[in-house]
Structures are given as structure tokens and as C-alpha cells.
Amino acid sequence: FNEKLFISIRNQVEKDVVLVFDIKSKSYLDTIPAYNNVQMTLPIEYNGNRYLIILNEGNFGTNDSKLQFIDLSNGNEELAVVDIGGGGNFIDYAIRNDDVWIAATMNSSHQIQIVSLKKMEIIKTINLQTEGFNGPREAHFNNENDLIYVSAYDGNIYEVNPETGDAKNYLECKAKPEGFYAGLAGNDYLLVANIM
Asked: How far is the CA of 105 from the CAs of 6, 30, 74, in angstroms?
């Protein structure tokens, strides 16, 4: 992203951080403080502004997952922190209705949180019918049909309508789908990585 690499570091002794590197010069640029169990980063460019969304997983079984909104156009300033539930695992985004929607997969609370970049708050909570340790893992927006595809450890890929919150079983994987890629051959195929 703009020749920068963002690396999330979980630190057992000190606070979790995101390190910022310049790819071209191969040099360290900055450290952005993170919260408990930083999981991943997602750079977004929208309306001429650059943002970094940081997903902090929190502790499993608690509701302390957080999304951090960082303004990369203004010295890595933290704009907001949004509490999003339990077990934040993955984030993806899409441009919707003159806004950027971020889908956060919550594997402990069995939800997909839709968070608005413009409002920097949750605008919709979608409950999946998973339970126990079989919660959702990843969520990917499909810009062709305005749906979200969600992998879950219950062995399914779900098709979710982010407007209505309706979720239906889309694909039975017969294993635990960890990650997947949607968009092969014009969005006609999903490439699924099962762990068992």
C-alpha cells in the first residue's frame, strides 16, 4: 500500500504493535500502538484519504475485540477505536452507499460486524447459526453480487446479504474451511483452504 508494509506484532512482554516499513528503501518508518492480540491490518484508500484499519482479536471468550482507525494521511493519528465483540479474526471491505463498509468476522461471538468507515461505528450485526468452536473465520465481499462470503469451522461457506443480514448455507466443505479466495474466473469459483 503506497509502497508501505504494515506488520502486526503480538508481543508477550510488552504492548502489541504494528510496524510500518518502506518497501522501496527497505527501512523502518514507524510503530503504531495496537491493543490486545493484534490480528491483522487493512489499508484503505477512499476519497483521497488513506486509512489503516487494525483488527485486535482480544482474548477468546471475552468481548474485547477492537477495530482501530488510523489516519495514514495525517501522521498515523488514531481517529477512533470501536469495540466489536468477541474473537475478531478477519476483516475485509467494500465501497457501499457512498461509504466504506468493513466486515469483521467474530469467531467467538459468532457474528459478522459491519462497520462504517464514515461513521466509525457498527452499523449492522449479522448473527450466524454457528456455535462452540465452529464459528466464522474469514469474510470476503463480492462486488459482483453485493454479498459477503463467510467461512466457518462448522464446515460451511455462507452467503450473507449485508443489507438484510440474511445468511444461508452456500457451500458445504466437508472439513473446516480456514481461508478462501472468491473471485476466480469472474466470481464463478471459490478456492477454499480446509484445515482438516
From this structure: 20, 28, 28
